[in-house]
Design brief:
This protein is α/β, with parallel strands linked by helices. The chain has 2 domains: 4-95 and 284-301, NAD(P)-binding Rossmann-like Domain (Rossmann fold), CATH 3.40.50.720; 98-274, 3-Layer(aba) Sandwich (Rossmann fold). It is built from 10 helices and 13 strands. The strands form 2 sheets. An 8-stranded mixed sheet has the order 8-9-7-6-10-11-12-13. The two termini are 38 Å apart.
């Protein structure tokens, strides 16, 4: 079988050894400075440095490109009308992060409900401040996004007794999750939720999906967790809702601008957990990413269809979203 050329773009974190790739795959590992030269002959591109700004205008720079794999869930920085029209296949880390991110969501909701931040704050003063906190069981949760991450969140939150509803682009009945709400029901659904979890990609139709109007309709005293993209939430409106006390708090793992600027007021709010896009980075996450890519690469080298594929017009893997 003819040799297949693969380019791996790595950044500050070196890519682990790719020892199990098929013999006919010739691998070139480059940084951003070496990418242009490699793209002239490569047929596949593995974005290990998945947020790199270097991977743009690929159809013009890589005339032989067939496949791009992104070692992350989000691919919005990569997409363009030209790429959609080119026929280049795009895959992502679908499935690798679902349970990991769901555990982060559960941890954040539990910490908020049990006021663990207050308990930690009392410790330096040795303050014996007995108080009541909340129950997870019976808490109403709305998960916005019914892809792999959203479904994993709903599954885990229900396991501890929370009343969880999913919301997707369109309403439907799901064998596991029952009635899934449609996006047209978002304004009414947030009004009855104690917790809202954002688990949607950045794609056409999701920019500021949680708009100022929707945030104003959220139940007073409710809690927000965002494990999707930062730009799916109107960050200014969210900050105002937190400052005013309309929302009780938030756990935010993504932001409109990353890193979050040092002067942003979200850093100073005690009821806000700021995490630097780390909800998915747990345990053997890099090992699992390499294993997934190795499996996909074996199929590509053999001429098999790659699955699941990102719909480059929608910006995500179609299915349950």
């Amino acid at each position: 079988m003819a040799e297949r050329r693969l380019t791996v773009l790595q950044g500050e974190v070196p890519v682990p050894a790719l020892d199990d790739l098929p013999e006919q795959v010739a691998v070139t590992v480059v940084d951003a400075d070496g990418l242009d030269a490699a793209l002239q002959s490569t047929q596949a591109l593995f974005l290990w440095d998945f947020f790199s700004a270097a991977a743009t205008d690929l159809t013009q720079r890589a005339p032989r490109l067939e496949w791009v794999h992104v070692a992350a869930a989000g691919v919005d920085h990569l997409l363009s009308p030209e790429l959609s029209a080119s026929g280049v296949v795009v895959t992502n880390a679908a499935g690798v992060f679902d349970r990991r991110i769901a555990e982060y969501v559960l941890a954040c909701v539990a910490a908020h409900t049990k006021d663990l931040a207050g308990t930690w704050a009392d410790r330096p003063a040795r303050a014996w401040r007995t108080r009541e906190t909340g129950d997870l069981a019976g808490t109403s949760v709305l998960v916005v996004g019914a892809g792999g991450v959203g479904r994993a969140c709903a599954r885990l939150l229900r396991a501890v007794g929370m009343k969880c509803r999913l919301l997707a682009r369109s309403a439907r009945t799901d064998p596991e999750h029952g009635r899934v709400l449609g996006v047209s029901e978002l304004a009414t659904a947030v009004a009855t939720a104690d917790v809202v979890v954002m688990a949607v990609p950045l794609a056409p139709g999701t920019v500021s999906l949680l708009s100022a109007d929707i945030i104003a309709r959220m139940r007073p005293g409710s809690y927000l967790v965002n494990v999707g993209r930062g730009r799916t939430v109107d960050q200014r409106a969210l900050t105002e809702a937190l400052l005013s006390g309309h929302l009780a708090g938030a756990a935010l793992d993504s932001f409109e601008v990353e890193p979050l600027p040092p002067g942003d007021p979200l850093w100073t709010l005690p009821q806000v957990l700021v995490s630097p896009h780390t909800s998915s980075r747990t345990g053997r996450w890099r090992t699992d990413l390499i294993a997934q890519f190795t499996r996909l690469c074996a199929g590509w080298a053999s001429g098999l269809p790659l699955s699941p594929q990102v719909d480059t017009r929608l910006g995500f893997v179609p299915g349950n979203r």
